[in-house]
Amino acid sequence: MPERLFTAFWNLENLFAPADYAARPEWLARTLRTQLRGWSSALLQHKLKQLASIIEQMNDGKGPDLLAVCEVENQFVLDELCALLNERMPQREYQPVHVDASRDLRGIDTAFIHDRRVLQVNRDEIFSHWVIRRTGTRDITQATFITNSGAELVALANHWPSRSGDNLGSSSGFRAVAGETLGYWHERIRDIKGVDAAVIALGDFNDDPFDASVIEHARATRELRDVTRARSARFYNLSWSYLTQPAVDRRGRQRTLNGTLYHRGDGHVFDQILVSPGLVKSGGAFRALLQTARIEAFPEMTDSTASPAPIRFGLPKGNARKNVNRNGFSDHYPVSLTIESR
Q1: Higher pLDDT residue, 101 or 70?
Q2: In what helix (H) or strand (E) does residue 85 lie, and over which residues does it extend?
Q3: 8 with 68: CB under 8 angstroms?
Q4: Pairing relationship of beta strands 4-15 and 335-341 according to DSSP bridges
């Protein structure tokens, strides 16, 4: 019987250890001193409960088999999240995959959480790919996961450089570099593992699926035939399928989502899922169930105001004790895809 893997990505928005976390490097403690004012162990634990309440609802209440994340500070917060998820879902045995090699100025990383009963990680194939630019940036985390039947899935967790100024301003070149970095390592994975390798890239790209960094540099397209017929590394971009997705907000009203996050009321599809040719044509160990790609927008996390934005927990500037919305979650919706062994 085919194995099914529920994969997802979520930007957890500023998942930092408490302000008094003793193991934080001195340079980072200085940088974050103002941002983390009032960020206590109690607030962290409450945010973790909010995040866990959404994660456990995914996959029809069974939770994801593989969850890529970003905006996590360190292994400590990942361990805390996994412990809470395992307590809430005893059928799961989640553990993190994290490389503390980020050059981000705020010390935030990409990582994975996986159920070790379903997927093992090849410890010799965990990499942190440096996105080269003038200032600090988040690396791309790559890991090879192995199912109980021995099939391999290579996953890459992304958090591309944020936008600054106008959308086509000075920061666009940084995301072009990130796209080139992802495209380069996709090609190298195919060189080593073959053209039918199952590769999935998930992340917050800080660009929409129609932007050049995604289409031209990462070589990710909505045209399925272009991917299946390509001789070089190309990705099929599933995020086009959830550009207009129905949802129910926290007041029970029907809404239409046009983004995975909202900025000044405008929706953007920054959170994307890209799959390799090996996941969309015959011959590989897995196939992506394309119709399952979706935004995970549960009612309690969907705002009922003019734009159906995800409700933030956040880490606002100033005093966290006064400004955090304890009923919030993240400023991004999670996205998900189910894949199946052949």
Answers
A1: 70
A2: helix 75-88
A3: yes
A4: antiparallel
Element (H, E) at 44: helix 41-55
Residue of 182, 175, 103 whose CA lies nearest to 140: 182
Integer Cα distance of 299 and 174 in angstroms: 35
Report H helices in 216-299.
224-229
The span from the CA of 199 to the CA of 204, in Å, is 17
Q: To which residue do tokens 């996986």 refer?
A: 114
> Where are the strands (E) in 49-163, listed by range?
66-72, 94-98, 109-115, 119-129, 140-147, 152-159
CA atoms within 13 Å, Cβ hemisphere of 64: 24
Residue with tokens 């500070």: 73
d(CA 126, CA 250): 39
113 is written with which tokens? 């959480």
Nearest to 36 by CA among 102, 85, 103, 107: 107
What are the backbone dihedrals phi and psi of residue 109, each rounded to the nearest 5 degrees, phi first?
-125, 170
Q: How far apart, in Å, are the Cα atoms of 212 and each of 48, 94, 136, 202, 218?
A: 35, 36, 22, 17, 9
**Range with the poorest average pLDDT among 35-44, 59-68, 220-229, 268-277:** 35-44
Indicate whether 134 pLDDT > 70: no
Fold of 4-341: Deoxyribonuclease I; Chain A (3.60.10)
Containing 231, the helix (H) or strand (E) segment is none
Q: Beta partners for 181?
A: none
Instruction: Assess contact for 32 and 39: CB atoms under 8 A.
Output: no
Tell me which residue has tokens 């086509």: 168
* φ/ψ bin of 129: left (φ > 0), alpha (ψ from -120 to 50), beta (otherwise): beta
